[in-house]
Each structure stands twice: as C-alpha cells, then as structure tokens.
Amino acid sequence: MRLSTLTKVAAVVAAVVLTATACGEQAELGGSTGDGPAVAEDATFEAGTTMARLNEAGALRVGTKFDQPLFGLRGLDGNPVGFDVEIAKIIAAKLGIPPEGITFTETPSRIREDVIANDQVDIVAATYTINDARKERISFAGPYYVAGQDLMVAADNTTITGPDALRAANARVCSVTGSTPAKTIEQYVDPANIVLFDVYTACADALRNGQVDAVTTDNVILLGLIDSSQGAFKLVDAPFTEEPYGIGITKGDVAFCEFINTTLTEAVADGSYAAAWESTVGGVQPEVPELPTADACS
C-alpha cells in the first residue's frame, strides 16, 4: 500500500506545540480530540489474559510520541494528540477502559522496545514500523497504517529531488536515533553526513538553522512538521520505502495481538477508525486510508 501524493497541506494542526518533554515523563490524560469511541460497558475476557487483567484494572499504559504533529504530539493543554493517540483510545475503549484510564508515556524511537520489555507500558503506539529486528524483542499487532519514508528540505531547495541526489549534493541529513528511517538513509548518505537526535523537532530546528540540508522520516510525520513551519520547509515528495505501523506489545502475547487486530477491524466497521483519522491527520491528508491486512500473530 502506497500513500497517494502528498503535496498540499490544507489546514493547520490545532493547538499543538513543537516541544518535547523529557524522556520518560508521563501524563495521565484523557487522550486527544473529541469524545472518542464508545467504551464497552460489559466487556468480559477469558481469565488470565492480558485483556482480562487490563479490564479489571481499568487502566491502560500507552507509550507514544510527544513530538510528532498529527500522530503523537503534546498539545498546549498538556494532552497528547494525534492518530496514534486515537488508536490507543480505540483499543482502550474495547477493553472497557475510558479515556481517563489511559496513562500516556513519552516514548522516543530508541526506547520503544525497552519500555515494552521492561513492563513500563502495556502497548506502544508511536509511528512504530514493524520489522524483523524489533520482533526479536517484542511482538506487533496490526499494521494499522502504512507510511512511506521521504525527505523534508528548505522551501527554496531545488538540489535535493530524492534520496539518490543526497550523496552528490554532499547533503547532511537528520533523523532520529533508533528509527527505521535513520537506518534506511545509510545507503544514500555518507556516514559522516548523518545527524541523529532523540526527537524530530530537533531535526527541524537543525534544518531551519542550516545545520543540516534535509530531514528524513515518514512522509505523514514530515507533513506535520511542514504544516507547523510557516512556509520554511517543503516535502520532496519522492517516497522510497513502505513503513507499516504496528502496535508494540509483549513478545509472544498472541491472544492480545489477535484482540487488537479484531478491534482495528471493528473500528473500521463502526466508523471510529475514520473518525480517528479525520480528527487528526485528516486536516492535511483528508482521504481516510484503508486498514492494511493484519499480519499473523506470533
């Protein structure tokens, strides 16, 4: 599944700031926009399952990003907002957990497997690309969305037209430590020209200050940064990968994986998946994506 051309940013991301909080900070918050999906009042689950434990506790711990407009960003009121946040709320609702029962923890790319393996969160919804290396430590439900890696450059840059132009331009490229885009860009850029930070807002600052020539990550994340740049940046619009976003969970929890996959399918049928998209990414990319076919749980 390839995203349609993403060239026009049509609306402003509401009530957001581009500052990330310290790694590991938690916010016990009600989630993001709107009333959210209906909470299952009579949810029951087989004893001993993760679903039964979470339902009984009435609480869900979610790792997400706090620095990525449209998917996971801490807003002016302190609440995280974005599509990943809304997906977490859909899962919580099916567990019988209301928004106020969700604890969101900032989870940068480099620690996503750690917070799952160390039982600091129950799920990670954080623009989390499914790949084999990560599956060695954790399991994934989904995918629930497929993005594509692209490049963001200064609005007046005409030299960088795609990844193949980077080496010839001796371009300095910024990405985030521990991310799939940071690994992928190594085949297009000399190692000395790769700059890594913990969060993408730091990359945006480096691009604005002329410290780097491009920022690379998934195109929808870049669109959020572009939308907040007041015309300073643009998307090269030459995607060169497919990035399936999954929900990270404890390794080997097949029952929980299957529950999440069923929940996502039901969210499409009842309209809550579309509502989640429209209230977040829909401001800049109105077309609601199709839910990808779920991978086998293992």
UniProtKB/TrEMBL annotation:
Transmembrane segments: none
Ranges for domain Solute-binding protein family 3/N-terminal: 59-284
Signal peptide coordinates: 1-22
Keywords, sorted A to Z: Signal, Transport
InterPro entries: Bact_solute-bind_prot3, SBP_3_CS, Solute-binding_3/MltF_N
PROSITE patterns given in the database record: PROKAR_LIPOPROTEIN (PS51257), SBP_BACTERIAL_3 (PS01039)
Family under the similarity heading: Belongs to the bacterial solute-binding protein 3 family.
Name recorded for this polypeptide: Glutamate ABC transporter substrate-binding protein
Organism expressing this protein natively: Pseudonocardia abyssalis
